[in-house]
Design brief:
By secondary structure, this protein is an alpha+beta fold. It has 9 helices and 6 strands. The chain is 46% helix and 13% strand.
C-alpha cells in the first residue's frame, strides 16, 4: 500500500511537532480569511461548481477579489479547476469553473471526551425506558444548545448577536456546524435535496454512542436548541448515524 505524502500523521500515533505545524500552516493559509472560508463552503454546496463572477455576485465582491480567493483555494488543492469558454459573449479570458475537490483536510484533532462520564451517562440512561431516555437526552441537548447559541459572540457576518433578527436557516446551520466542530464533531452543513443537513464525520462520544444509541438524542437536542435560538423552532431528524452502521452521522432539518 502506498504511503500518504504530506504533513498528515500516520493513523494511531501522535503527530510530531513538525507535522502538526505543517498541517496548521496549510489549513490556515487556505482558510484563514473568513471570506475565503465562506466561499469554499459555497463552492462545496454547488453541484456544478462556481465561477469567479458567480462568487463575486453572491458575496458582493469585486470579481478580482473573488478570483483571488478561489485561486488560493485551488492552489491548496481544496478546489478543482476546469477552464472552458467564457459565459460572456464578449471576448475575454477563458471562464474557470471551480469545484470542491476530494482532498481530505490534513489536520484532525482527537475527540474531546471524558470516557468515564460518557459511559456513566449511557448506563444511567439504560436504566430508563427507551422512549423516556431519548426524551431526557434530547432535552439535555436542547438546553445545552440554547446556552451555547446564546453565548456566541456575534454572527458570522459580523453582526452583534443571535438575539437580533433571526438568521437564514442556511447561515444558522453553518454556525451550528462550526460549534459542533469545536466540540469534536468535525461537522459541516450542506444541501440534501430539498433539505439542509449537518454532516458529522466524527463523534466525541466515541464507542459509547455505538453501544448506547440513545446518546445520539443529545446531538439532535444540541442542534435543535441552537437553531431555536439562531433561527427558530425546527425538528431535526436523524438520517444516518454510526450506531446504525453508517460511516457518518447526518441530521436533516
Amino acid at each position: 500500500m502506498e504511503s500518504v505524502s504530506g504533513p498528515r500523521a500516520e493513523v494511531g500515533r501522535e503527530p510530531t511537532s513538525e507535522e502538526f505545524a505543517a498541517a496548521v500552516s496549510a489549513v490556515t493559509s487556505a482558510f484563514g480569511d473568513p471570506s475565503r472560508r465562506r466561499i469554499y463552503l459555497f463552492a462545496r454546496e454547488a453541484d456544478n461548481g462556481v465561477t469567479a463572477g458567480g462568487v463575486a455576485e453572491h458575496f458582493d465582491l469585486h470579481p478580482n477579489v473573488a478570483r483571488h480567493h478561489l485561486d488560493r483555494l485551488a492552489a491548496g488543492g481544496y478546489l478543482d479547476v476546469r477552464v472552458g469558454r467564457s459565459d460572456s459573449p464578449a471576448a475575454g479570458r477563458p471562464s474557470k469553473r471551480y469545484r470542491a475537490s476530494a482532498k481530505e483536510m490534513g489536520l484532525t484533532f482527537p475527540a474531546r471526551r471524558d470516557d468515564l462520564l460518557v459511559t456513566l451517562l449511557a448506563r444511567a440512561l439504560a436504566l430508563v425506558p427507551q422512549v423516556q431516555a431519548e426524551a431526557m437526552a434530547e432535552e439535555v441537548g436542547r438546553d445545552y444548545g440554547r446556552m451555547l447559541a446564546e453565548s456566541m459572540a456575534g454572527t458570522p457576518d459580523g453582526g452583534s448577536g443571535a438575539s437580533e433578527t433571526h438568521r437564514s436557516l442556511r447561515v444558522a446551520l453553518h454556525a451550528v456546524a462550526d460549534a459542533l466542530t469545536a466540540h469534536g464533531f468535525a461537522a459541516h452543513a450542506e444541501s440534501r435535496g430539498n433539505a439542509l443537513a449537518i454532516i458529522s464525520e466524527q463523534c466525541p462520544f466515541g464507542d459509547a454512542a455505538v453501544e448506547h444509541p440513545v446518546i445520539c438524542a443529545v446531538d439532535r437536542g444540541i442542534v435543535a436548541g441552537m437553531l431555536a435560538t439562531l433561527y427558530g423552532d425546527t425538528i431535526p431528524e436523524t438520517e444516518a448515524s454510526r450506531p446504525q452502521g453508517d460511516r457518518i452521522c447526518v441530521t436533516v432539518v
